[in-house]
Write a structure and sequence with these properties.
With about 180 residues, the protein is an all-alpha fold. The protein is built from 5 helices and no strands. Helix 4 (about 125-145) runs antiparallel to helix 5 (about 150-180). It is globular.
């Protein structure tokens, strides 16, 4: 017998993560890992073109790689909890709390790194930070179930947002990596 939301209960009658939820998150993890690999290739091209990595380059490389691996790992957490037969009533709040905590720390670290290396914040960066703060707030709401019952939707949206942000920043800054150093 299916439960509310079309879920199949486990042996104890507790609804588990649906195949659709797990499939989406696993595909997101795959895409995120591909992003890490592709951005690593671009950084390697920088070296092949004779360019050095400045502090700004290093900050961006760390953002791409750390961010991509972070989304990959966070996308796997609900499936791992599902394999451990953790009840759905715990899976989404716990996954959301972990993601919200990590994203909060990452935003603080990236804010400090950017300010230390580049100083000012252009409007597009401020908009991304504002959107990211709202995304983290949505995760915390998913933990406590205040505005809506905890579920996969808010979790998947925030992880997708994070990957899109890392990809957007990559596209905005790719020219920094591919710019050739003029011959001396």
């Amino acid at each position: 017998m299916r439960t509310r939301g079309g879920r199949l209960p486990d042996e104890k009658g507790s609804p588990m993560v649906t195949p659709g939820e797990s499939d989406y998150l696993l595909r997101l993890a795959t895409l995120s890992l591909s992003f890490v690999g592709f951005s690593s290739v671009v950084v390697t091209l920088r070296g092949a073109l004779g360019g050095e990595l400045s502090d700004r380059h290093l900050r961006l490389v760390r953002l791409y790689i750390e961010g991509g691996f972070l989304v990959t790992a966070l996308a796997l957490i609900p499936t791992l909890l599902n394999l451990l037969h953790v009840r759905e009533t715990v899976v989404w709040p716990l996954s959301s709390a972990v993601a919200a905590s990590i994203f909060t720390v990452v935003m603080l670290i990236q804010f400090r790194r950017r300010r230390a290396v580049e100083g000012k914040f252009p409007p597009w960066v401020i908009i991304i930070y504002a959107g990211s703060i709202l995304a983290v707030a949505a995760l915390w709401l998913n933990v406590i179930g205040l505005a809506f019952p905890p579920g996969a939707g808010p979790y998947a949206i925030v992880l997708t947002w994070a990957l899109c942000v890392f990809g957007f920043i990559f596209v905005r800054t790719i020219e920094l990596f591919l710019h050739r150093i003029p011959p001396a």
